[in-house]
Amino acid sequence: MSTQLTQIKTDLTSITLDVLEAAHLQAGDLFVLGCSTSEVVGGQIGQSSSQETGAVIIETLLAILKPRQIQLAVQGCEHINRSLVVEKTVAQQRQFEIVSVVPAMHAGGACSVAAFDQFEQPVEVEHIVAQAGIDIGDTAIGMHVKFVQVPVRPTLQTLGAAHVTALRSRPKYVGGPRAIYDTDQMV
């Protein structure tokens, strides 16, 4: 593995652990990834996709999330309407509608292609509701994170050359001035 890919793996591990610590995810929760490998390698989104980078990113996330029994969903680009790769069992358990598309390098992106290769039974779904996620390269994952979304600021805010943001969710505050909130339950 090249020095650049080793650094991406190291940095992504740090970023992911920061997000997991802030989000307090549990087994069975859903974690969304939006990623432009073009941005990671220093190009413009959609112009310099890197299969090798996508494969390392998915491999790294699966190595962190699988032992915690947190499910990964990988968002594709706008050319497939930001549909997501998930395991078939996740789609079935959560009653996500499976759609007919197979991601490609320039219609889905390198991370979607890598997820399709590395997942056990990959399928594409149109919409999900994740508890948290990472956005690498400003790909706009907010539509797939449960309301109310809260920004997470990982210690590292870049991966390669890409800007990194993250989101977690919390339950809505409802009620009025007399309402009492158990913030320990709302991490």
Automatic annotation (TrEMBL):
Species of provenance: Latilactobacillus fuchuensis
Protein name: UPF0340 protein LFUMFP_310093
Family according to the record: Belongs to the UPF0340 family.
Cited NCBIfam families: TIGR01440 family protein
Pfam families cross-referenced by the UniProt entry: DUF436 (PF04260)
Cross-referenced InterPro entries: Antibiotic_NAT-like, DUF436
The organism's place on the tree of life at top rank: Bacteria
